[in-house]
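Notes, Module 5: Reading structure tokens.

Key idea: the token line is not a picture. It is a compressed description, and you learn to read it the same way you learned to read a sequence, by spotting repeated patterns. We will look at two proteins. The first is printed below with its tokens.
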Amino acid sequence: MNPEAKIMLDHCASLGITQGRMLDLGAGDAVGDASVALPFIDRGWDVTLVDASPTVVSGLARKFGRHPKVKVVQALLASVGGDFAPFYEIPGDTALSTACAALMKRKIGREEFDTVHMMAATWEDLVLTTDVLDVVSVDLEGHSMAVAMGLMRAMIENLKPSVLCVEVFPREVLGMDEAEDLASDARANGYKVLARTKENLILVRA
């Protein structure tokens, strides 16, 4: 089982939540078997999978299109919605997609890859169209901290999930510790750090 999923499921169980609602933002891993969302799906949770990549969304639709409790949504989150924004991917490879051109170049070691322009949505758009949630997982690889912080604040202020899992890059990748900023902001909004794994910060209501 995905280690972050186990931590979140155990915490939810301690709160008496055994079948709730889960939102997975950046759900590309669900095409394979390492996803944080799969253990929730297997346990009968209502799960919404959101990703920007056309390749990923196509794979998710094939895998979960007939599942009665799984919804697949294609959306590119950005600081400003209502305009077209670039997204980068290698068609057919769900592991190589990002909103950051520099990160894509570093991943594949070359300059050429596909650029897909799509209508961007903000975290406000998503919050306004999403039901109350128990668990939110945020994997916005390549997005700016402004988007991640804004999304986290929106989730905390509007949806108040019991558990919020946010992917953070280690200091050696970005030259800064995203987790420190996110944890400080979360504490100011009534949350605390439940766990810090290699690439994720798991927050719960204090």
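Here is the second protein, with the sequence above and the tokens below, as before.
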Amino acid sequence: MACRVCKAIGRLCGTRRQCLTVSDAAIPLPALLPPTFDAWKPDDPDRAVAVLMSGGVDSSVTALLLKRDGWDVCGVTMRLPIAEQCKHPRPCCGWEAATVCRDLRIPHYFMDTASAFQRHVIDPFCAAYAQARTPSPCVDCNTALKFGVVWDALEQCLGVRHIATGHYARREDHLAGPRLRTAVAGERDARYFLYGITSERLARVL
């Protein structure tokens, strides 16, 4: 079932649950690039977690805290076209994440997400804007990219069962499934950006 964005861009956008259909199966997953340092070889998949890292404070502290709690941590950074063009002396997306992982002594990988970012974030954003609607690219990026095809690729390449990010939110587990709750630091609550994550995957987000 296609949404209005699908109709505008002439294909399934993948940003909404009803658009994530088997027809997307033919689209290649983002490519995991060779390890930046040493390859990740977790001993226990149930205690292994991939942290999606930009190089910023929040995701870096997430990796540190999980390592302190005994998790086998690996950092993963998405390579985006906008990051490649960044001229800032301290870019938020790229090598600073690798530097943090080196200092924490955890493995690190880059993932080529340029095509997936265009498909799942940029194209739907442009289509919505052209229709005089207000797009939410951060929601689409989390729903379809980070917790969608990026996680699919990490499962396929590394057997990842758990993912963590630097978002501020809490998860409560119930018999009916996990629920997102307000972050302890309520002023930094980020539930809005995570609401599209499926229940099955939300249960495995740390």
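Summary for the second protein:
- Helices lie at 4-9, 57-68, 81-84, 95-104, 114-130, 137-158, 199-202.
- The longest strand covers residues 72-79.
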